[in-house]
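Q: I'm building a small set of examples for a reading group on sequence design. Run inverse folding on the following structure and report the sequence directly after it, with nothing in between.
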């Protein structure tokens, strides 16, 4: 018998942890287990053809809000060309209300609900032996003309009994994110999240975690993303694992979902010594409005969270993501702007602005009528409006989200955005809202743009604002542009035309062994021509190397050296040095 485990990931770089758990859980069965992952961007016909060519007797799909519609389309077509193939669905999107889903989709044979590491191999064994499923916990199945929903399976108490999902190695994952977990469950009851439906946290043992992590590091994986809902729910245990990873060395980046206000001095004392780029934290803020946080049962002390985030920022060794969710109960357009500004002023390395999804089984969905929620009826069930925020206002937030992604999160425009924020008295939301209006007016939302074009559009927008010093903004955009990479050409509006004398001064700088020894000693073994390809000198009308927090930058000719040959490019792409003696 041949069993195919498959799913549709949202992007190619993603991989599916659940399928790997299932594969190793079935290793003792007398079946051939194959695994093939696709994406929602693949053509449905290509996916169907690939599945057919595997000649499976059983196909098991891992289902989520981002792939369930496409999965059901494939299932329908698959049954037409392989009518005897048994179709099994599992995952969070089908575990709730499974009977209704099977009533509406006649081609689904079986649904595995909840954790599958025990249920799935038992199910396959029963299918092999042609035994009835009536005594198998955790499944919903067809029996003649009926749909039968067996009782739920108890959660796995000892997680160490679950095999390591990457026992077979990392083939096929060379260019993908590898997912892992050290816990299951969540201590919180956030009403927008399915984790609120189960109580408590279960832990893999530290010995097991240590073995697993060593495997990742020894394999030289670029990134491992932990899916623990709140990794530091036990701060002491989290510190042990952080220290464990630091002691092992290696170049693998580990991504954690953290609760910001559960951080403490002891944890920061460990983290301050982490090599840059080793850790990446995603911290869910969601909102800074206390009433909204109370309603969604998200217990967050934002003042404490802001304190710890600010201290982490000082270390400059951990990439910090902060999340907001638009459309939460009793957060209107104005209060969301305050939440946005509260989080933005912490200057995270990435600000993720998401929109509420009313997931099946979540508290908010169960009480949607209380706040007059209107949401998309099909996955991902995204909010359209509620009694506090209109569809039109959420559309404005969509525009802001797009520009935050294009401009803030890329870190290619930091100095320009800081200056423009000062024009808006550091009302960061107002800056992005006005920029989004300009973006729509110009029709820029209807076409894609190159990186260089994004600089040009920001310059166009800034030059149209009252109070902006045009030449200063041009210098700041040039600073942002050149700090990313050695320029071969410049954005329109900041083109550079050096005089022969200026070219000579720059050429003489790179020809001087004394200058190289002082400013670029790590490049001393290269020729002047080679060095000039790894470094760059740019001339400015303003002293843009000054701190920009005050917005007060003196107008004086300034030369800046950009060194692109730096070891760690997690937080910057070049080292910037003012050359006071050059001009």
């Amino acid at each position: 018998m041949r069993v195919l485990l498959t799913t549709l990931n949202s992007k190619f770089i993603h991989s599916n942890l659940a399928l790997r758990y299932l594969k190793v859980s079935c290793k003792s069965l007398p079946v051939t287990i194959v695994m093939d992952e696709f994406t929602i961007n693949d053509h449905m016909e290509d996916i169907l053809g690939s599945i057919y060519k595997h000649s499976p007797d059983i196909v098991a799909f891992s289902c989520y809000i981002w792939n369930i519609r496409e999965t059901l389309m494939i299932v329908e077509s698959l049954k037409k060309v392989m009518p005897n193939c048994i179709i099994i669905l599992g995952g969070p999107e089908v575990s709730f209300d499974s009977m209704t889903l099977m009533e509406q989709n006649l081609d689904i044979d079986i649904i595995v609900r909840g954790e599958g590491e025990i249920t799935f191999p038992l199910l396959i064994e029963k299918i092999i032996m042609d035994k009835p499923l009536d005594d198998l916990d955790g499944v919903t199945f067809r029996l003649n003309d009926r749909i039968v929903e067996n009782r739920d399976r108890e959660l796995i108490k000892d997680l160490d009994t679950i095999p390591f999902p990457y026992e077979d190695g990392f083939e096929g994952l060379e260019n993908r994110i590898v997912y892992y977990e050290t816990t299951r469950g969540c201590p919180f009851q956030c009403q927008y999240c399915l984790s609120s439906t189960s109580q408590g946290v279960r832990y893999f043992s530290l010995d097991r975690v240590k073995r697993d992590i060593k495997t990742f590091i020894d394999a030289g994986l670029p990134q491992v993303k932990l899916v623990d809902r709140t990794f530091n729910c036990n701060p002491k245990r989290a510190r042990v694992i952080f220290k464990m990873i630091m002691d092992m060395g290696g170049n693998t980046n580990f991504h954690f979902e953290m609760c910001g206000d559960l951080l403490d001095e002891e944890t920061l004392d460990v983290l301050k010594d982490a090599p840059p780029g080793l850790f990446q934290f995603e911290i869910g803020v969601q909102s800074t409005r206390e009433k909204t946080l109370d309603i969604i049962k998200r217990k967050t002390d934002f003042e404490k969270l802001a304190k710890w985030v600010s201290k982490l920022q000082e270390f400059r060794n951990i990439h910090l993501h902060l999340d907001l969710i638009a459309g939460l109960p009793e957060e209107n357009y104005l209060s969301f702007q305050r939440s946005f500004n509260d989080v933005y002023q912490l200057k995270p390395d990435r600000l993720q602005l998401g929109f509420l999804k009313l997931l099946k089984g979540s508290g908010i969905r169960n009480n949607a009528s209380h706040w007059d929620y209107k949401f998309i009826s099909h996955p991902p069930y995204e909010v359209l409006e509620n009694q506090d925020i209109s569809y039109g206002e959420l559309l404005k937030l969509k525009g802001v989200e797009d520009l935050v992604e294009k401009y803030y999160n890329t870190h290619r425009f930091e100095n320009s955005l800081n200056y423009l924020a000062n024009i808006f008295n550091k009302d960061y939301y107002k800056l992005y809202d006005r920029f989004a209006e300009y973006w729509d007016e110009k029709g820029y939302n209807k076409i894609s743009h190159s990186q260089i074009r994004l600089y040009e559009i920001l310059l166009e927008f800034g030059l149209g604002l009252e109070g902006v010093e045009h030449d200063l903004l041009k210098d700041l955009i040039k600073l942002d542009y050149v700090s990313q990479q050695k320029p071969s050409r410049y954005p329109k509006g900041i083109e550079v035309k050096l005089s022969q004398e200026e070219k000579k001064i720059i050429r003489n700088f790179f020809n001087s062994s004394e200058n190289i020894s002082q400013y670029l000693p790590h490049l001393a073994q290269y020729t002047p021509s080679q060095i000039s390809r790894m470094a760059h000198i740019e001339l400015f009308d303003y002293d843009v190397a000054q701190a920009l927090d005050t917005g007060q930058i003196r107008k004086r000719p300034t030369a800046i050296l950009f060194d692109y040959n730096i070891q760690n490019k997690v937080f910057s792409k070049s080292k910037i040095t003012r050359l006071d003696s050059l001009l």
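The radius of gyration is 27 Å.
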